[in-house]
Structure formats: structure tokens, C-alpha cells
Fold this sequence. Notes:
The protein is mainly α. The chain folds into two domains: 1-54, Homeodomain-like (Arc Repressor Mutant, subunit A); 66-194, Tetracycline Repressor, domain 2. Helices cover 74% and strands 0% of the residues. The chain is built from nine helices and no strands. The model has no long low-confidence stretch (mean pLDDT 92).
Amino acid sequence: MAxxxxxxxxxxxxxxxxxxxxxxSMEKIAAATGITRTTLYSRYATKSDLFRSVVRETLARWxxxxxxEATDRITDIGQILxxxxxxxxxxxxxxxxxxxxxxxxxxxxxxxxxxxxxxDLGYLNAVRLLANDIRAAAQRDGIPVARxxxxxxxxxxxxxxxxxxxxxxxxxxxxDIEAHGREVVDLMLLARDRW
Length: 195
């Protein structure tokens, strides 16, 4: 990605997060980036186009990190799943992630394509990643697995659902979420023969 594109997206992202979609104008973004309006409009015809690009670029960057295969370093499925919930915990408390998630929720009717994008790049990507880890461990350990995607979804929704509930009433840390996630994984491992 060209440096000018990176600068535009970084500036627009911080402005959207600070002031919301309606509180930001293309003129303000151009000025804050140090470019002309013509330069900005030649790349993004509308503020909506720019917002979509900010969301897509940010999501792609975050979730590219989770594509790193834990199985390259670790072969124990418990350790792999603990690593995955630790990554999830870090993401859930990241201020940038939380801000972008809130922006997408607030504007989901205006931009109906962005919530499914976040769902696919975020949740479904995490399901695929965990399911692949589970499949690889089943093959490695000689333990059959019938529904790796279902197991992955149970882990993810148990951790995320807990986060959503307790985040309403107290300040959660990554360590809090990870500790809960480890308990979820450990409980799931007790039923591994039924996966």
C-alpha cells in the first residue's frame, strides 16, 4: 500500500474513532493528512467509500495476525487453544478494536455490508482457524473429531458471551478474559472424545 494511502487511512481511522462518522468531513481528513481535497477525492469518491476502506484495511490487518499457525510451534491442542483464547482476549480489550466495533455497530444500518465483513473476517475467520487447529490435533493425536467447527464455535461464543456480559458491569483486562477462556478450553477438553 502506498504511503499516501496509509496516511489517509490512518488519519481517517483516528478521526472516525474520535468524532464518529457524522463528525468528520472529507475536508478535515484532507487537511489533517496534509493533502489536497482533490488528492483525497481522487482516491475516495465519498466519505462512505473512505469509511469502508478504513474498516476493511483495519480488519484485514488485525486478523492477518491470527492466521499465524500456532501448530508450527506447539502440538498440544490444549496449549494451542489456550494461545488462541489469549489472542482473542488481547483483541477484545484493544481500544482500537473496541472503537471500530462500536462504530460498525452504530452505523450498521447505513453500511449494511460492514457488519457481515467484520463477522466474516473476525468471527468466522476465528472459527476456521480453531477448527483447523482441532482437525490437525485430531489427526496428530489419532482422536477422531466429527464437528471441529461446532467445537470452535462453542469455545468462541463461551468466551465472547462472557466478555459481553461482564464488560457491562466491570472493567475487564486481557488477563480476566484469558483466565475465563482457559477454563472454557479446559472444560471442552474434558469432553474431547465427544467432539
